[in-house]
């Protein structure tokens, strides 16, 4: 990986060379020497910066969906934001979370393997308190979940996984399904300790209670779709083909759509006094010669030029000219 200097670093380097603090010849000798960089095999780099950026974009949407969902469920102020997306060994993640926490273990077909949504006890118990009629504050002492509390937790976080499905929709159609809810990290071994994971950290605020929600995605789980996380796949739109039945149904719906069509005979301006003095039999002169065609509007756009007439004793118009693209803009002006 090439180290890129910032503008401030470049200015400082040039100033040091100018003042004689650094010698250009010594710098050249250092460049010719072999540079050895330590590599920790326990912290294997499996996600590129491109992948990390894509995961950040995806889970920024996930955070917004979660904010909307929890705000509606808890009926209180909820704010969730992505703080960091990093890669680290699974064992390091397990050691970084509290001994007593809420671990939502789930699968997401068609991906193979399990992922974890870890919710800090402060956040989880604040949600529980709010759902049970409280003000949304976490207890001073966190204890184990009762059977009823576990069922409530499973229900709310199972539905929260639908937000993950929505966030990943542009990459893959996931079907998240909550498999189990654990409170002790030592009983949760979804991958080997040295397996690299992507850890998405979400700062969460519920009322006056703050905490973290961590999403653990093992590399082995999303490895089959890693190419889809590239910038090329993210920004290049692929042409989607519709099924013939869907295309036919769409055409039928468009053909049945009703559009307002107005044929304008002309326009005129009169004063308010003249308008008040109008009576039956009066004639209003229009600002359009009788030999000039009528403007036919579809919606508020001029699309045709026509002539007035009658058909079977009913007023009608005959289309004489189709207004080409761009001409309607001139009429609008």
Structural notes for this entry:
- By secondary structure, the protein is an alpha+beta fold.
- Among the domains are: 49-237, CheC-like (Chemotaxis protein chec); 257-267 and 291-320, no CATH class.
- 36% of the residues lie in helices and 25% in strands.
- It is built from 11 helices and 10 strands.
- It has helices spanning 7-19, 24-32, 49-74, 90-96, 121-131, 147-167, 219-222, 231-235, 244-255, 272-276, 327-332, and strands spanning 78-89, 102-109, 114-119, 175-182, 196-206, 209-218, 261-264, 294-298, 301-311, 314-322.
- The strands form 2 sheets. A 6-stranded antiparallel beta sheet has the order 1-5-6-3-2-4.
- Strand 5 and strand 6 (209-218) form a beta hairpin.
- Helix 3 (49-74) packs across helix 6.
- The two termini are 57 Å apart.
- Residues 326-333 have low confidence and may be disordered.
- InterPro entries: CheC-like_sf (IPR028976), Flag_FliM (IPR001689), FliN-like_C (IPR001543), SpoA-like_sf (IPR036429).
- This is Flagellar motor switch protein FliM.
- Keywords: Bacterial flagellum, Cell membrane, Cell projection, Chemotaxis, Cilium, Flagellar rotation, Flagellum, Membrane.
- Belongs to the FliM family.
- It comes from Cohnella abietis.
Brief synopsis:
This protein is an alpha+beta fold and 333 residues long.
Question: What topology does this entry show?
Answer:
Blueprint: H1 7-19, H2 24-32, H3 49-74, E1 78-89, H4 90-96, E2 102-109, E3 114-119, H5 121-131, H6 147-167, E4 175-182, E5 196-206, E6 209-218, H7 219-222, H8 231-235, H9 244-255, E7 261-264, H10 272-276, E8 294-298, E9 301-311, E10 314-322, H11 327-332
Antiparallel strand pairs: 1-5, 2-3, 2-4, 3-6, 5-6, 7-8, 8-9, 9-10
Helix pairs in contact: 3-6
């Amino acid at each position: 990986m090439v180290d890129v200097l910032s503008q401030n670093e470049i200015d400082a380097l040039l100033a040091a060379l100018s003042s004689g603090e650094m010698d250009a010849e010594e710098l050249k000798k250092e460049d010719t020497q072999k540079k050895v960089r330590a590599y920790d095999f326990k912290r294997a780099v499996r996600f590129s910066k491109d992948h990390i950026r894509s995961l950040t974009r995806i889970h920024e949407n996930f955070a917004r969906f979660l904010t909307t969902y929890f705000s509606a469920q808890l009926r209180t102020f909820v704010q969730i934001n992505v703080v960091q997306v990093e890669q680290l060994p699974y064992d390091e993640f397990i050691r970084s979370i509290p001994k007593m926490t809420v671990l939502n273990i789930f699968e997401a077909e068609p991906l193979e393997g399990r992922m974890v949504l870890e919710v800090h006890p402060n956040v989880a118990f604040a949600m529980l308190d709010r759902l049970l009629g409280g003000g949304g504050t976490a207890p001073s002492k966190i204890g184990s979940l009762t059977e009823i509390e576990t069922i409530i937790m499973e229900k709310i976080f199972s539905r929260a996984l639908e937000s993950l499905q929505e966030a990943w929709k542009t990459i893959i159609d996931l079907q998240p399904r909550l498999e189990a809810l654990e409170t002790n990290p030592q009983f949760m071994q979804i991958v080997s300790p040295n397996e690299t994971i992507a850890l998405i950290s979400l700062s969460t605020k519920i009322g006056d209670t703050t905490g973290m929600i961590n999403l653990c995605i093992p590399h082995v789980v999303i490895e089959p779709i890693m190419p889809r996380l590239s910038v090329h796949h993210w920004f290049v739109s692929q042409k989607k083909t519709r099924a013939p039945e869907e295309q036919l149904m769409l055409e039928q719906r468009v053909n049945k759509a009703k559009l307002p069509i107005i044929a304008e005979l002309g326009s005129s301006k009169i004063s308010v006094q003249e308008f008040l003095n109008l009576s039956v039999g009066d004639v209003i002169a229009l600002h359009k010669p009788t030999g000039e065609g009528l403007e036919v509007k579809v919606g508020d756009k001029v699309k045709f030029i026509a002539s007035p007439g009658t058909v079977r004793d009913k007023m009608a118009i005959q289309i004489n000219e189709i207004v080409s693209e761009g001409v309607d803009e001139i009429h609008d002006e």
